[in-house]
Amino acid sequence: MSHYIEKILTAPVYDVAIESPLDAMPRLSQRLGHQIHCKREDLQPVFSFKCRGAYNKMYHLSEQERNQGVICSSAGNHAQGVALAAQKLGIKATIVMPTTTPSIKVDAVKRLGKEWINIVLHGDFYDEASQHAKILQQQHQLTYIHPFDDDYVIAGQGTIALEILRQHPRPIDAIFVPVGGGGLLAGIALLIKALRPNIRLIAVEPDDAASMTQAVRHGSRITLDYVGVFADGVAVKQPGEHTFNIIQKHVDDYITVSTDEICAAMKDLFDDNRAIAEPSGALATAGLKKWAAQQSEKNLNLISIVSGANVNFDRLRYVAERAEIGEKREGLLAVSIPETPGSFLKFCQLIAQDQSITEFNYRYQDSKQAQILVGVQLNNGQRQLEHFIDTLNTHGYPTTDLTHNDLAKSHLRYMIGGAPQNLSNEFLFRFGFPERPGALLHFLKTLGNQFNISLFHYRNHGADYGRVLCAIQSTNRALLDQHLHNIGYDYEEQTHNPAYQHFLQPPTPKT
User: Of the residues 77, 143, 322, 450, which has the maximum number of CB atoms within 10 A of its CB?
Assistant: First the structure.
């Protein structure tokens, strides 16, 4: 251990890195009943901790190794660290990344390296990129800069632990660290267990990429057949040899989290600190939340490492959809109701008594029964959802819980609909619903029972006005227009919209 401690204490990481802040998370602390802080490695110049280890390794290269050039494989963040170090030290570098690497990381490497970097995209996962990089290393006699399984890389990451102990001299009960290959956790574990062995170290992995957890459980570095790539920064099939040996000796516990739980943690980091973490960057916070919920003791001092912020902006759409389910603040239900005028209003009156609706998906299918996909806001988690399901079943609305059905969450909620047969006199409208209790009931009551709603889609977007798509059947257009005017909501007809005509509009009856 002393061999590593000396390397950590003398690592010149501040040539390229900052001492990242240790931020309090007051909202999450109050909710969980603990004192929670997060270490903001997402604020580094390359928006992740990886510049520490990469620079420390390349700084210690011999003159001959520098002149020959280096090569690395990376899921993106290590690549940026190597690119920054190459620019700082004047070293040519070849960087191999998986083809699945988010474009924001690839583009960042291009900007950082400029004339110093050659980028190669190969394979779908880090391990495939790593194998290809080793082939290129042999062909071109380059020095391999390992992203995690190297003494100098491990030591560079370990400087984070030094900062935590300086920034939080008071007692610390547990530190939560994201794990891919294990370089970050190994470096932190070596220093923490040397100076403050009473602090619990907890490794956090995605449940679909838990290579270190499985390795420790089996007592050897097994290779997973497949790893999920949502948290691409930790999508590693096999942990490092050195990191595995360190971690199995010095880490106290291991926890895995789901994609939904990672999304919920990303939202927590934004709510408390306005941090926009990448999925692997929020991994440790997700693990902290899950672990804290299992503890009987309260007011513990807990710290999570926010390891990076290199996330494509368009991925945030997916994160926003899954965050509420991951926090157990939203349920997703399939409900059957009679296909008769007024049944929609009756159903909404029942659920409006004690339930806030976050989503409504419905499209006419036949004249007997309607299938509705309903999102409901939860304040009391699973218990509240189970009570609501019992209420619906008791009132004659057969209900199926789809909250944890990945097919429903990822695809079905966007695909409900189609063009029904035997449906005529349908008009399509977009409405602006004020986001307040009773808005939907006001709409249905004012519309009355003489019109049939044949399509309805609503999704809460956290704005002052919700966006609603609604199709209404009517043989008296003037009467329908009068009722729509009486509702008092802004609306715009979409019957002639080509998207409706191509995918949703019923076919014209044959004469």
Answer: 77
